[in-house]
Design goal:
With about 500 residues, this protein is of the alpha+beta class. β7 and β8 form a beta hairpin. The N terminus is likely disordered.
């Protein structure tokens, strides 16, 4: 019965879904409602470069928009190989989008024309709506360039520029050497197709410099990507495929140049904490990875406490004794000042003070284990008790029951009595058809993943396993197509780690 319920939930959610297509560096979405590819983003340059792009056909002066004929869309492998199928009045048009794992700034578009069956010559058109609204399009030696968009060209291609109305009336401007695009105009890359041509291949490179295009065929590129994921999966051969899929998702988050350098950037507390979690997960999954070059001199005491906490966790994970680490020993005064600053911020309930309290509390627990604990902070026990009381007042009602599931993780700060009382109550809430926490008929993935962790930490291993494998089953059947949620992936992989699987 549980499987039937989950399957029905899955089928209802997949209809008209948005699909995220990404290799970690480039990301775009297939808009299931409007049947267009949209919001092409580049993480290295932290900007969107295309509002959308579409595929069109022109035959006998009639324009056919592929978006009006889509009958099937799906991932081929990973989230970086995407397939779209159109039925144009009985003729089939197939398009593949690949965002390369090898050349991270490159996107490949392959159009299979062999099933189209059109006898007369016609035109295949790629319509682009750049977010740089005005600028010059240049006709280079073997590509076209507009800002950081670089399009491969061949002997049968040309660039047209015009408004949508101009294009529909075939009143467009032709690119020869340089052509200025106006804000309301689109870029149309047109390929002339004769009856002998069975396919088309377009490569787009996102680069401000001279682009690097491949010499491979599309089939070679696709096979290399599939082989990439096959080798990736083989590293985790002992795990079930849906667990491997979450590790794949984490790889896409971590693999971008932007993510790997982001600890040096200025960002909010929330974003900074996210990136620290990403770095920590990478350390767990890649045993040979080095401890990141943490910066301990941020202008925010709370962020520095987050840094110290994850640094200590890294040391423990790498079997390095923090007591013998020079970075801790040589920064006692600075760390003590950061602790005092962070404590004042929590007392004043600044920002997400509950999350800050949790990290601060856990950091105090780590300090207590160190030989330098008295030098770092002398009133640890009284401060811990104060944090417990403040958190308890915030998350529990007058009957000392948890007010809402969003605060499950903060139960770990409370006394053993308060913690056990609420864990028992939450376990009772699992007595339903699906065996998961629900609110108004909705399943909160993150709340259930947090509960599985907290149950495991507190010795409820049987109950924890039930929650985790139930939410795992649900996540597998109701895949989130339109985003990679860092918090969800972090909690999922931490559940796997707790069980000694990674």
């Amino acid at each position: 019965m549980k499987k039937i319920v989950l399957l029905l939930l899955f089928l209802s959610s997949i209809l008209k879904a948005d699909y995220l297509i990404t290799n970690g560096e480039i990301a775009l979405f297939y808009d299931g409602k409007n049947n267009i590819l949209k919001n092409v983003k580049d993480r290295e340059f932290k900007k969107e470069v295309l509002s959308n792009f579409q595929i069109l056909l022109i035959k006998d002066y009639k324009i056919y928009r592929a978006r009006n004929y889509y009958t099937e869309v799906k991932y081929i492998d990973g989230k970086n190989i995407f397939y779209m199928k159109s039925n144009v009045n009985g003729d089939i048009l197939e398009t593949y989008i690949i965002l390369s794992n090898n050349q991270k700034n490159n996107m490949y578009i392959y159009t299979n024309l062999s099933k189209l069956g059109w006898k007369k010559p016609y035109n295949l058109v790629y319509k682009f709506s750049p977010l740089v609204l005005e600028g010059n399009i240049e006709n280079k030696e073997n590509y076209y360039k507009y800002d950081m968009l670089n399009f491969s060209k061949d002997s049968n291609s040309e660039i047209l520029v015009g408004t949508e109305n101009d294009f529909e009336n075939f009143k467009v401007k032709f690119l020869e050497n340089i052509l200025t695009k106006q804000p309301d105009e689109r870029i149309y890359l047109v390929k002339k197709i004769d009856q002998n041509k069975k396919d088309d291949f377009l490569e787009i490179s996102l680069s401000k410099e001279k682009p690097e295009f491949t010499n491979l065929t599309f089939e070679d590129i696709k096979n290399k990507e599939i082989e990439f994921w096959k080798k990736f999966d083989n590293k985790y051969y002992y795990l079930r495929q849906n667990m491997i899929n979450q590790i794949r998702n984490f790889y896409l988050i971590f693999s971008s140049k932007y993510t790997q350098s982001s600890l040096k950037a200025n960002m909010s507390r929330v974003k900074y904490a996210e990136q620290l979690k990403v770095m920590y997960l990478n350390g767990i999954l890649n045993k040979k990875s080095l401890i990141p070059d943490f910066k301990f001199e941020r202008n925010d005491g709370i962020q520095n406490i987050y840094t110290y906490y994850y640094y200590v966790k890294f040391c423990i994970n790498k079997k390095i004794n923090p007591n013998k680490n020079e970075k801790i020993k040589n920064n006692v005064t600075i760390i003590r000042n950061n602790i005092e600053e962070a404590y004042k911020s929590i007392q004043n309930k600044e920002g997400d003070w509950l999350q800050d309290s949790l990290i601060f509390y856990n950091f105090l627990l780590e300090i207590e284990k160190m030989s330098l604990s008295k030098e770092l902070f002398i009133n640890i026990e009284s401060i811990k008790n104060e944090i417990k009381n403040n958190v308890k007042k915030e998350i529990l009602d007058k009957n000392e029951n948890l007010k809402n599931y969003d605060n499950i993780e903060y139960l770990q700060i409370l006394t053993l009595k308060d913690k056990r009382q609420n864990l028992e109550r939450l376990v009772n809430h699992l007595n339903n058809r699906i065996g998961l926490l629900q609110e108004n008929g909705e399943i909160n993935r993150i709340a259930n993943l947090k509960l599985a962790l907290l149950l495991y930490e507190n010795g409820y291993t049987v109950e924890s396993d039930k929650v985790f494998y139930n939410i795992d089953y649900f996540i597998n059947f109701e895949e989130n197509y339109n985003e990679l949620n860092i918090e969800e992936i972090y909690l999922y992989l931490m559940n796997i780690q707790y069980r000694g699987l990674i």
